[in-house]
Structures are given as structure tokens and as C-alpha cells.
From TrEMBL:
Region of interest (Disordered), ranges: 1-25
Family membership noted in the UniProt record: Belongs to the Tom22 family.
Entry protein name: Mitochondrial import receptor subunit TOM22 homolog
Species this protein is from: Rhamnella rubrinervis
GO BP terms, alphabetized: intracellular protein transport
One Pfam family matching this protein: Tom22
Length: 101
């Protein structure tokens, strides 16, 4: 009776052979040309995506800094000029003269 309770640690020969069959099937499938080409294609796609993301980030940095250096001061100056025109119009209407054209 005590020897029957300890049987859990012993593996049976049938289980070994079926496990080997599964391993050999998995090995054959994973080494098939289709799977190898699929892995290579996935690896190549990942490499291209990484390069594209890196170059896109560089381009975004260049565009962003160019916008800050060149366009933002232009926008600020145009806003100031518009405020000055509005102020001149307001002063002209208060003084009663005809607005400048």
C-alpha cells in the first residue's frame, strides 16, 4: 500500500514517447521553411518600423524647433500689429475723425 502511494513521481514509458512525438512535431513545424521565412519577415518588419519611428522622431523634432524659432515670433508680431490697428481705430472714433484707411 505504501509503495502504491509513491507512484506519482514515476513517469510511464507511454508518456515519454508521446512527449517525444510532440517535441519532434513542434521541432519540425518550427524549423519548416514557411515558419523560418515568417520569422525573418517579422524581424525585418520590426527593424524597418524601428528605423521609421526613429527617423520620424527626428523629423518631428526638426519641424517643432523650426516652428518655435520662426513661426511663433511671427504670430506674436502679427497679433501686436492687429492690436495696434484696433487701438488706432478706437482712438480715431473717440476723437471723431474719420478712420484711417
Amino acid at each position: 500500500m505504501a509503495s502504491q502511494a509513491r507512484r506519482g513521481g514515476v513517469s510511464l514509458p507511454e508518456r515519454r514517447s508521446s512527449n517525444n512525438e510532440q517535441n519532434s512535431i513542434i521541432a519540425r513545424v518550427s524549423q519548416s521553411p514557411i515558419v523560418v521565412r515568417g520569422r525573418q519577415a517579422a524581424s525585418d518588419a520590426g527593424f524597418v518600423a524601428k528605423k521609421l519611428l526613429k527617423s520620424t522622431g527626428k523629423a518631428a523634432w526638426i519641424a517643432g524647433t523650426t516652428f518655435l524659432v520662426l513661426v511663433v515670433p511671427l504670430i506674436i508680431e502679427m497679433d501686436r500689429e492687429q492690436q495696434m490697428n484696433d487701438l488706432e481705430l478706437q482712438q480715431a472714433s473717440i476723437l471723431g475723425s474719420s478712420p484711417p484707411k
